[in-house]
């Protein structure tokens, strides 16, 4: 059943414009320049020009999934003439407990004001087991993935649609665009994943370590925290008892304890939640990637270097990277971090180009990136292509605390006293390497590396956590984490022999950082990682430096005349 409601668009004085005429009669629309002024008075960014002023129609497009489960979906579409078809912007996620039609969130208002009134349709779907959608909260399971693909086809084949769909969203909803792309559905023309996941296991179990969420992400955070409460409200809690919940409840703790990404109860549990290879093989659209470089909820390793591989293979990718956390570029209530008031305009141009196929619209530079100083610049891509990999030898190019050529690191906490037994000399909770005051500005962009020689004193090895910092500003610029059993990198556990050194090849999370002239670059290494389950090994790790035993390798770039603002920034 379809319910239709006409909403007032509230655009008095705005004239209609012929959207079809844009494709053939308009002069090329260039990228905006420094003379534009953005409206900074609202909760979100707005366009620099008037919309077409369409009234808005609300439709329910609930559908029956392949296994008979009812999935709820709503769409807000423009009341256009019959010969003007609307492209679709679609959001799919679990956060509609207040109702699929509730527009209380600023993100929904953002789309109605900037896009639906201008001729786009905005659809959203509640993933199965959440809100009023039936079924079980599968946390990206196979049935949920098939639902998303089916929803794309359902909305794209409506008589008012032009058949072109963009998947957009943040966090969980920023992951479903990757899922939609993995099917190769021809209706999906572009995706805009904002702080989304490409590989769930890689997020939670990087280099053999486990986030605190790792053991409970499916069973507690999403099933008990969202799925079951929503099902109780909807009156069908029995549907929340399913194999996927059982599998997830075991897979998380199992991988936390062992590092093994093929759980004994369901070897494919993590594999089906990794969309990197399916996207490469099946997708035929563009990507507008958005990520905060200070996001510790979903780190930017979900995007990099994966998307660079896609670019090398011919995918069109646009990048937006700011010094914010788990957030959108134009979150107006954010403090001390720039708000991109041009976000609506930038996104509108992207959708004009890819959904309306208005090729006269300039979508702007390939990458917008903000460095750790807060300065914005544009690049052709990110990380830039002109990186110069520069190696610093710990102990030779640095001063160290302590000043010997090795020291024992011990974990902080209940086991620290036992770990720092008397037979371990110079037991430290932290090693600090100082690179001295910079004679010239030092700027690095991308994924820095640390190759550190370490001697484990347990077959379980222990953990290493590293930070690159600006010592003068007391500012963290980049961080890395590793379980020594995964010292070679990747997902394969290595055998460790107590007393035999290994080289831990650590890769830092993506960063765009600058150390100003006169400031001090600092490297800190500890045996404890914030937000990670502590290592099973309580014994120390001996760290070695000097004579190139350990090296920090930075992706250095040189840039001049960096602007502190983007065009028109207040």
Would you mind describing this structure in some detail?
This protein is α+β, with helices and mostly antiparallel strands and 570 residues long. It has three domains: 4-15 and 30-198 and 275-364, 3-Layer(aba) Sandwich (Rossmann fold), CATH 3.40.50.1820; 199-273, no CATH class; 388-556, Jelly Rolls (Sandwich). It has eleven helices and 27 strands. It has helices at 19-25, 106-114, 142-156, 172-182, 200-204, 217-234, 243-258, 276-282, 306-312, 343-355, 416-419, and strands spanning 4-7, 56-60, 63-64, 70-71, 73-78, 86-93, 121-126, 161-170, 188-194, 286-292, 317-322, 367-370, 376-379, 388-393, 399-401, 406-409, 427-428, 430-437, 442-446, 449-456, 463-470, 475-483, 502-507, 511-515, 520-526, 541-544, 551-556. The strands form five sheets. The protein has an eleven-stranded mixed beta sheet with strand order 1-2-5-7-6-8-9-10-11-12-13, with helices on both faces. Strands 14, 16, 17, 20, 23, 26 and 27 form a seven-stranded mixed beta sheet that branches. A five-stranded antiparallel beta sheet has the order 15-18-25-21-22, with no helix packed on it. Mean pLDDT is 89; it is low at 1-27 and 414-422.
């Amino acid at each position: 059943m379809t319910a239709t409601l006409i909403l007032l668009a509230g655009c008095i004085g705005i004239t209609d414009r012929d959207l079809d005429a844009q494709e053939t009669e308009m002069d090329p629309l260039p990228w905006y320049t420094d003379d534009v002024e953005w409206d900074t008075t609202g909760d979100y960014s707005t366009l620099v020009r008037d919309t077409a002023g369409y009234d808005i129609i609300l439709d329910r497009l609930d559908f029956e999934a392949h296994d008979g489960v009812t999935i709820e979906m709503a769409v807000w579409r423009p009341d256009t003439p019959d010969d003007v078809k609307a492209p679709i912007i679609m959001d799919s996620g679990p956060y509609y407990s207040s109702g699929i039609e509730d527009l209380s969130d600023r993100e929904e208002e953002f789309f109605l004001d900037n896009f639906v009134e201008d001729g786009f349709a905005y659809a959203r779907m509640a993933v199965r087991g959440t809100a009023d959608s039936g079924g079980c909260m599968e946390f990206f399971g196979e049935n949920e993935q098939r639902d998303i693909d089916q929803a794309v086809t359902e909305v794209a084949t409506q008589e008012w649609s032009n058949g072109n769909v963009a998947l957009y969203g943040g966090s969980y909803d920023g992951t479903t665009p990757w899922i939609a792309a993995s099917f190769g559905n021809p209706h999906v023309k572009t995706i805009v994943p904002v702080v989304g996941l490409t590989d769930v296991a890689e997020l939670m179990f990087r280099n053999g370590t486990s986030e605190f969420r790792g053991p409970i992400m499916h069973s507690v955070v999403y099933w008990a925290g969202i799925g079951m409460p929503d099902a109780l409200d909807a009156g069908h809690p029995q549907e929340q008892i399913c194999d996927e919940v059982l599998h997830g409840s075991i897979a998380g703790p199992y991988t936390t304890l062992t590092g093994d990404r093929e759980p004994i109860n369901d070897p494919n549990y993590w594999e089906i939640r990794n969309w990197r290879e399916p996207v490469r093989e099946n997708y035929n659209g563009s990507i507008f990637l958005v990520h905060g470089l200070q996001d510790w909820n979903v780190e930017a390793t979900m995007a990099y270097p994966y998307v660079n591989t896609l670019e090398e293979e011919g995918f069109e990718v646009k990048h937006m990277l700011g010094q914010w956390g788990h957030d959108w570029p134009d979150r107006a209530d954010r403090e001390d971090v720039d708000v991109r008031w041009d976000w609506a305009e930038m996104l509108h141009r992207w959708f004009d180009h890819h959904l309306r196929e208005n090729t006269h619209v300039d979508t702007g530079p390939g990458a917008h990136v903000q460095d750790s100083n807060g300065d914005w610049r544009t690049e052709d891509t990110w990380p830039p292509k002109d990186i110069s990999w520069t190696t610093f030898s710990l102990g030779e190019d640095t001063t160290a605390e302590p000043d010997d050529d090795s020291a024992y690191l011990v974990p902080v906490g209940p086991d620290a006293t036992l770990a720092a037994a008397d037979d371990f000399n110079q037991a430290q909770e932290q090693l600090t390497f100082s690179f001295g005051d910079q004679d010239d500005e030092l700027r690095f962009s991308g994924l820095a590396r640390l190759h550190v020689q370490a001697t484990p004193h347990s077959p379980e090895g222990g953990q290493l956590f590293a930070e690159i910092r600006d010592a003068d500003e007391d500012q963290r610029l980049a961080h890395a984490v590793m379980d020594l059993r995964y010292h070679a990198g990747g997902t394969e556990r290595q055998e460790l022999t107590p007393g035999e050194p290994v080289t831990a090849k650590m890769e830092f999370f993506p960063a765009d950082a600058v150390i100003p002239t006169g400031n001090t670059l600092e490297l800190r290494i500890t045996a404890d990682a914030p937000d990670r389950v502590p290592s099973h090994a309580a014994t120390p790790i001996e760290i070695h430096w000097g004579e190139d035993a350990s090296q920090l390798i930075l992706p250095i770039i040189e840039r001049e005349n960096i602007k502190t603002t983007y065009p028109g920034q207040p």
